[in-house]
């Protein structure tokens, strides 16, 4: 067991090291810099790289540390629970759940160090943050507690199912799908208002234009909501969520302040592209199918590395081994999900480009990239593995091709 576990650990840390190095190196194609140079100054290109590295390196180091710690906890048979707890709690499922809680709390504390640097110090250094430390800390702790609780409950239930008689490869993905579907409807209505003020869009001219575009595309007119984030951050964003008639578009107030009506309409058209093709629903279906596949692979790996099925590990109280396998599966699945996500983003961009001018699309992307300090010349390997959106210059170049093509047609 030890040799196989060490082998996997070395492979994962090695792969992460390569990804981190690629991320730091950035683009290897000088054409990327030339293309970016047409819209951004050298200082902006350098600054975007620096901003990216200051966030990516701490996160990658954290990921490697988590893997190594979990592997060592298995190898050295560390007891996560204190002796007094172990003596009192005899039920293996309760003990597993408590162990999970202890491990998750520990990981959350490790993560805090990275979040403080990448999320607070870095955002301040690059002039993106509007909130002071007490407010930042309060919001960070609140969101961490929510995610800690949700993850803990989810993993405890999964462990219980793995150790039971139910067909877990069907049960877990189905439950995940139903719960996530509910969450996509509830999240913007319950969790987002905990962090931001959310109102309906007041600008009646813009609202009219948006509703006009929605009717044109044959979609039910639902509400356009504004999330007031300007108090905390200068970053701008827009997203849509839900499915069927519960779909809603959310715009950040920072967007409404700094972007033109045409630019906002391009953003809405992009979101509408997601909306029309039911990307949230398809994404959830794919993730559920992915979970089923991952559970199958996990069962094989569990026997190969730890000499027992996941169910046996649960019943023997070896939950840390399962945590290690879970992290391993998440790592392997990452590039698959990133690739699917980038594919959906390209579809949504195509939808927006068919409905607006490429000129506005380009000016919007340039403005967005400057405002959010998007990496202007990222490394393709890193992008392939981790990025959910295509690089900004790829999106701009596509709009340039559309512009060149429509110019030819008009002539
Ligand atoms: Zn999108």
Order of helices and strands: HHHHHHHHEHEEEHHHHHHHH
- In whole angstroms, the N-to-C terminal distance is 70 Å
The tally of domains stands at 1
Q: State the shape.
A: globular
- Ligand roster: zinc ion
Largest sheet: number of strands, sense, barrel closure: 4 strands, mixed
Q: What is the number of E strands?
A: 4
Low-confidence stretches: none
The Cα radius of gyration reads: 23 Å
The structural class is mainly alpha
Mean pLDDT across the residues is 88
User: How much helix is in the residues?
Assistant: over 70%
Strand content: under 5%
Strand line-up of the largest beta sheet = 1-2-4-3
Number of helices: 17
Describe the structure.
With 411 residues, this protein is mainly alpha-helical. The protein has one domain. It has 17 helices and 4 strands. Strands 1-2-4-3 form a 4-stranded mixed beta sheet. Helix 1 runs antiparallel to helix 3. The radius of gyration is 23 Å and the shape is globular. The site of zinc ion has 4 residues, from helix 11 and helix 14.
Short account of what is shown:
The chain is mainly α. Helices cover 75% and strands 4% of the residues.
Can you lay out the helices and strands and say which pair or pack?
Blueprint: H1 2-25, H2 30-37, H3 42-75, H4 83-88, H5 92-125, H6 133-162, H7 168-190, H8 192-195, E1 197-200, H9 204-216, E2 224-228, E3 238-241, E4 248-252, H10 253-258, H11 261-276, H12 279-306, H13 310-315, H14 319-355, H15 358-372, H16 380-386, H17 392-410
Parallel strand pairs: 2-4
Antiparallel strand pairs: 1-2, 3-4
Helix pairs in contact: 1-3, 1-16, 3-5, 3-14, 5-6, 7-12, 9-11, 11-14, 11-15, 12-14, 14-16, 15-17
Zinc ion binds next to α11 and α14.
């Amino acid at each position: 067991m030890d040799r196989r576990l060490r082998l996997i650990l070395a492979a994962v840390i090695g792969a992460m090291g390569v990804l981190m190095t690629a991320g730091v190196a950035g683009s290897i194609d000088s054409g990327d810099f030339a293309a970016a140079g047409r819209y951004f100054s050298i200082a902006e290109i350098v600054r975007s790289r620096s901003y990216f590295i200051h966030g990516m390196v701490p996160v990658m180091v954290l990921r490697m540390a988590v893997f190594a710690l979990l592997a060592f906890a298995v190898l050295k048979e560390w007891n996560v629970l204190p002796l007094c707890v172990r003596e009192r709690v005899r039920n293996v499922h309760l003990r597993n759940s408590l162990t999970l809680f202890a491990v998750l709390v520990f990981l959350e504390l490790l993560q805090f160090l990275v979040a403080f640097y990448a999320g607070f110090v870095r955002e301040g250094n690059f002039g993106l943050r509007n909130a002071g430390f007490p407010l930042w800390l309060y919001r960070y702790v609140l969101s961490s507690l929510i995610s800690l609780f949700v993850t803990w409950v989810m993993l405890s239930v999964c462990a219980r199912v793995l150790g039971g008689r139910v067909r877990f490869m069907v049960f877990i993905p189905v439950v995940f799908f139903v719960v996530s579907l509910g969450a996509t409807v509830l999240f913007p209505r319950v969790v987002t208002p905990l962090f931001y003020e959310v109102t309906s869009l007041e600008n009646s001219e813009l609202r009219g234009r948006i509703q006009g575009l929605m009717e044109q595309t044959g979609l039910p007119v639902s509400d356009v909501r504004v999330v007031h984030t300007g108090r905390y951050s200068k970053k701008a964003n827009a997203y849509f969520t839900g499915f069927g008639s519960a779909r809603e578009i959310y715009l950040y107030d920072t967007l409404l302040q700094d972007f033109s009506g045409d630019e906002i309409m391009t953003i809405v058209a992009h979101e509408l592209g997601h909306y029309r093709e039911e990307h949230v629903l398809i994404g959830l279906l794919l993730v559920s199918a992915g979970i089923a596949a991952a559970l199958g692979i996990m069962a094989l790996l569990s026997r190969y590395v730890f000499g027992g099925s996941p169910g046996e590990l649960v019943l023997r109280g070896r939950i840390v081994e399962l945590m290690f396998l879970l992290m391993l599966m998440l790592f392997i699945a990452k590039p698959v999900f990133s690739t699917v996500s980038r594919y959906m983003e390209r579809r949504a961009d195509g939808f927006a480009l068919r409905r607006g001018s490429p000129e506005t699309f380009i000016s919007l992307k340039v403005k967005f990239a400057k405002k959010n300090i998007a990496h202007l010349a990222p490394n393709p390997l890193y992008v392939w593995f981790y990025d959910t959106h295509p690089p900004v210059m790829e999106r701009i170049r596509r709009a340039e091709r559309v512009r060149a093509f429509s110019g030819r047609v008009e002539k």
